[in-house]
Design a protein that fits this description.
The mean pLDDT is 91. This protein folds into two domains: 216 residues, 3-Layer(bba) Sandwich (FAD/NAD(P)-binding domain); 86 residues. Strand 10 and strand 11 form a beta hairpin. The radius of gyration is 22 Å and the shape is globular. The protein is of the alpha+beta class and 419 residues long. Helix 1 runs parallel beside helix 4, helix 1 packs parallel to helix 8 and helix 8 packs antiparallel against helix 9.
Amino acid sequence: MVVASFHTQCCIAGGGPAGIMLGLLLARAGVDVIVLEKHEDFFRDFRGDTIHPSTIDLIDQLGLRERFDAIPQSRISTLDLVINGNRLTPVDFGTLRGRNRSIALMPQWDFLNLLANEASRYPTFRLLMGAEATSLRYGTADAAGHRRVVGVSAHMRRQPVEITADLTVGADGRDSTIRRSAGLAPVDYGVAIDVLWFRLPKVSDAPPDTLGYLNGESMVITIPRSDYYQAGMLIPKGGYPEIQAEGLDAFRARIVRAAPFLAPAVGAVHSWGQVKLLTVQVNRLPTWWAPGLLCIGDAAHAMSPAFGVGVNYAIQDAVAAARILAEPLRTASVSPTHLQSVQRRRELPVRLMQPIQLQLHKVIAKPGGGGFLRNPMPFWQRMPVTALLPVLRRAAARLVGRGFRPERLDGELLRPHQG
């Protein structure tokens, strides 16, 4: 028995960065919106938690910079890699134009709370925590036999609820229930790696902040936080059971062989329960929409963790969707043409970035990828590296920091709707 029912102009399934940002922007534009978040709070380990300049630009436009800066965080203006003992700086965000020329590292729960608190200021915004969409609801078939999505069925704190909506948005991640319920299947592009995530305490004699350490065996990621490293190890896809079978001592030794400075810290990993497996996916829906339905973020295109751009591309999707759909939602006139426009706007940046991520996996970001540089580098390696790095720093800063086709707020999204 349904215990509650809601009606809204837009129902967003998923309270991650894409869902909360879209909800905030639509509410600012005067659209009635409900966001469903299956957890009771945002306090979960989101691993990367990188906020790139393209997203910080949006924070500035929203007038949230003071509150954003008040959140405990660290900043990275360059990204170092240590490849087989050779320290290189392939990314320098200081070369970017504009105010924001660094990456912010902050717990994603703090970032989501910032956006949700701001959205709650608008009377047309509702965030239902502990509410998980379980299936789509459809209207009656038209003369051609097509049925339009008219909302979702959900469970809120184990009680069934129904939400009727003019538009439903799937922002519920790479394992999207909304996408599956709609029968939309992504094309998978195949990635040969997975990532093991774990925390390590910072060491007293730490080197400069470094994104990752590669050798001929492995790659270890070291994302700096206030008093610990959010660390990761790239492994062959499906290789976690074999690593577990070798034992924790072998796992800790593998970390130290790639990043020797972590030797005093690896003892903090004393059980496999502290190690989380991220199954890496790179995929994309051929069609992101159906009548009454739109998918954005990981539900439309799962990104590799390479460059840490997934969250930021999801937020860009939300901005584009809000700009295109706010007026049609207010006037109950959302059509397939509007939904197609969102996909056209955002598909190109994704189509450009995903092959770069895939190529990076093939060339360097894979177990053993660091073996291509000798230590010390001979003259024939040192000369091209020295010549290419200045060019790479600028190009990579633009690619990682702002991405392809970064979105900006304009028009009514800059000024909260009146009336």
